[in-house]
Design goal:
- There is one protein chain.
- The chain is an alpha/beta fold.
- It contains eleven helices and seven strands.
- The longest helix is centred in the middle third of the chain and has 25 residues.
């Protein structure tokens, strides 16, 4: 395993509560993504997880961690829900079934660092969270850098230097993530990841998420030209998200040497822009959100046929790893 120095990541909490702009009411793509592979996860658990061995070694307690959490139903197990300390844990816990047959615990902190004791977890699950970087690549904040991303908010249609900066930061983050989970999972434990991805060999600009983020950047630049926000605000704003290919993830997992790849594939559905409100409002202010998303929805309508064709290609990455 590598020994990267851990730094405190930037926190971009989703909107809490259950209002019209909350993450709870605007996470349909993420919910659909998790539901799309639910049956597959059940099959993988039945086939790959030695439950009898784990129970015998843990005195009857099965421990599950949901990294970048949302509520889900489980049998009588101990479940740890993890997210940044600024996450709305109150809304999360209020959404859990009152008659649930499992013990629920909130664990604040970044999954890019350690969260649990050594060999304390049997099953770790993360859905639509690992695409979030621990920070925006530093090169993007330097006007004199070739990676200065002027007029854009993402790397999808940006110069190669911008994309490479994101690729490098993602590799650092996933390396840290895998190193930490390798310490926390028992031997034979499973790590299941669902995240937006990109098929091998497909340019980021040709994916649905790439198109969506291009539209978002165009909307922000339109608002800047009308004086609603400044161009400087747009130039210094970059979405801290990255969509990896199966090839990239395979290389990172193999470099870690602590996991076997039990399954890795591109599936439907793909990610939307539902979870961007918190990130955008932190940079530009909450007062622009309604205007921005009204423009965004209109622009989506102008290109609906193109978006539908990209949606059918699929860009959700489903990964099952086993601790060896």
């Amino acid at each position: 395993m590598s020994n990267n120095t851990y730094t405190v990541p930037e926190s971009y909490p989703m909107n809490g509560g259950d209002g019209i702009n909350s993450y709870t009411k605007n996470s349909s793509f993420q919910r659909a993504g998790a539901n799309a592979v639910k049956a597959v996860i059940d099959d993988v658990i039945a086939e790959k997880l030695d439950v009898e061995k784990i129970f015998s070694s843990s005195k009857g307690t099965f421990r599950i961690a949901d990294l970048g959490c949302f509520a889900f139903e489980m049998p009588e197990f101990q479940v740890f829900f993890n997210d940044h300390a600024s996450n709305d844990f109150n809304t999360l816990f209020a959404s859990l079934p009152p008659e649930r047959s499992y013990f629920a615990t909130g664990v604040p902190g970044s999954f890019h660092g350690r969260l649990f004791p050594n060999f304390s977890l049997d099953f770790v699950y993360s859905s639509y969270a690992l695409q979030c970087l621990s920070k925006v690549p530093e090169e993007l904040l330097n006007k004199n850098s070739a990676a200065w991303n002027k007029g854009r908010v993402h790397y999808a249609s940006a110069p190669d230097e911008v994309a490479q900066a994101f690729t490098t930061q993602f590799a650092k983050d996933i390396t840290a993530f895998l190193d930490c989970r390798a310490k926390e999972l028992v031997v034979g434990g499973l790590l299941v990841l669902i995240m937006p991805g990109v098929p091998n060999g497909i340019p980021h600009s040709s994916t649905l998420t790439g198109a969506i983020f291009d539209f978002l950047g165009q909307c922000l630049m339109g608002m800047a030209k009308e004086g609603l926000i400044s161009e400087a605000q747009v130039d210094t704003f970059n979405l801290p998200v990255y969509f990896a290919s199966p090839k990239e993830m395979t290389q990172l997992v193999e470099r870690n040497e602590c996991f076997s790849i039990e399954r890795m594939e591109i599936t439907l559905p793909c990610a939307g822009a539902d979870d961007l409100i918190g990130i955008i409002s932190k940079h530009f202010g909450v007062e622009i959100i309604d205007e921005l998303f009204e423009r965004f929805c209109k622009k989506q309508g102008d290109f609906i046929s193109m978006l539908e064709s990209k949606y059918n290609e699929g860009d959700q990455l489903f990964i099952v790893l086993k601790r060896i």
